[in-house]
Amino acid sequence: MTESRAENSNQVNELMVPRVPSEFRKMKENTDCYEPLVVSIGPYHHGKQELKEMEKLKAKMAGQFVKDSRLAAEQMYSKVKELVSDARECYAEESTRQFNDEKFTQMMFLDGYFILQVVSTNLKQQNLRKEEVASVRRDLFLLENQLPFRVLNPLMRLLVTSMLMFNLTRCDLA
After folding, report:
1. For 22-55, what is each residue's pLDDT tens digit?
2. Is-contact 28 3, C-beta < 8 A?
3. Number of domains into which the chain is organized
4. Which of 16, 47, 54, 80 could be joined to 39 by an S-S link, Cβ 3.0–4.6 Å?
């Protein structure tokens, strides 16, 4: 094995959301394992024309999640901004280079809160057809269509803290 190949191999092992190796990409029957049908999560498939339609729904659902959380959107955005450099390290470098920190933060914000909203609500409420709901759920499990848990975990913690504070305040008022 050449030295550069060994370095590349080590890089893949260190990434939390690695790219599918080129050997597997050559087999067209494997595309179902890493090519999203309707929604992109993270940088690998972001901006693909065939996935643009779902960007509107991601923004709507992330916005609803922020509203339901009873936290200021700025506070939630700041939390994501704190995680950006750490999140970049989870992906292959060439896939994040095209995004400045602000664009990367926006993508992580929308994708992170979209995922949490999908997990916490019924997608059918979004006026999606059954096939679209199934495709969104499928896409969230694809190899190259992920957010690192180290991004999602602090966002979930922020929400839980907000909910606890809201409940404590309600109890104090009662």
Report:
1. 898 889 888 999 999 999 999 999 999 999 999 9
2. no
3. 1
4. 54
Domain encompassing residue 12: 3-173
State the pTM of this model. 0.83
Angle at 64 between CA 134 and CA 37, to 5 degrees: 25
Residue type, 62: A
Tokens describing residue 76: 């939630």
Please answer whether residues 150 and 83 qualify as being in contact, where contact means their C-beta atoms are separated by less than 8 angstroms: yes
Say how many Å lie between the first and final Cα of the chain, rounded. Answer: 69
Closest Cα to residue 162, out of 59, 75, 82?
Answer: 75
DSSP for residue 21 = P
In contact, 105 and 81? CB cutoff 8 Å: yes
**CA pseudo-torsion sign 103, 108, 111, 116:** negative
Report residue 69 CA to chain centroid gap: 18
